[in-house]
Write a structure and sequence with these properties.
With about 325 residues, the chain is an all-alpha fold. It is about 65% helix and about 0% strand. The structure holds ADP-ribosyl-L-arginine (F2R) and magnesium ion (3 copies).
Amino acid sequence: APNSWQTRARGSLLLAACADALGSVFEGQRGLDPERVAEAVDHVASSLCWTDDTAQTLVLAEHLAAHGGRIESDALAAGFADAWSAEPWRGYGHGAVQMLAQINDGTPWREAAQSAFGGSGSLGNGAAMRAAPVGLVPGCSLDEVAVAATASAGVSHVHPEGIDGAVAQALAVAIAARTPKDQGLQVNEVIEAIAARTGAVFAAELRAVPALLAGPAAAISDRYRCDATALGAVPPAIAVFLRHPDDPVALVKEAIGLGGDTDTIAAMAAAICGAHCGEAAVPQPWSAALEQAARVRAAADGLTRSGDAAQRRC
Ligand code: F2R
Ligand code: MG
Ligand code: MG
Ligand code: MG
């Protein structure tokens, strides 16, 4: 069924992994030529290899499936650190490597997360980039999604903006997954449902999104930094989704075209879009080329089962 939870969970994780891989080629670049981006997105020639964004998302998805939709912080932190040490070449940034290496060396995750960036904690987009699975646990209220997203972020990102990024991204996915595909999204309602559950700084950035939906995409990269911070990356990802809720190809091109943290902004926008459109919307050449597509589908199916009444604890 096109609106079943399973197809939405699969759509979200598959599309996000594809977008991560497509965007990774351009990460850190600015002023991108739209034709170069279109060429990469329209003509997938080789295998789509994803980055740290998808590696950490899969850890979180598999964790939620194994724990009845609930976050167990010690096991989750260990899972993130294990995934990094098994595949350190996936494109992790310097701050994440420092923290994950500390956890691997036996430093408690609370201490590692709290001491990051001179004690202010990370405000990077790393907790947001992996947050989609939290919005894909069925049967939770939006308040429960926000609580679980906060817990999922806290093992690595203790700065309020880093946490709010995860809350906003998980809520956007949850709302998209709950909205029938043929039912238009009410932009102001979506933004308010998210903004009401974040702090004032993040909410103000989110409330600037509706004004950016009709104009040129360049208005988004003028308004937001589109960088590796949560505040600079999550609002533009939500904006790109709301501009292209039913068109994954246009969405991924536009998200990458913003420049900056291209893999992460594209993956977050795509996770929301896939939750709304379902697996059928994932372009076949992308899913055919996607690395470990069977594992991605299995992770989505595990999330779907985590909402069984007997198991669910969110
Ligand atoms: N980092 C990258 N890509 C660049 C490096 C690629 C790699 N070296 C390679 O060669 O392949 N990509 C991935 O990292 C981003 C997610 O970042 P995360 O996990 O949040 O990391 P971090 O380091 O905690 O934060 C990211 C940046 O945010 C700024 N920042 C964070 N907290 C701060 C604070 N308290 N004060 C000031 N600045 C803060 C820093 O600039 C951090 O570098 C994703 O893009 C993922 O794809
Ligand atoms: Mg990455
Ligand atoms: Mg900018
Ligand atoms: Mg990135």
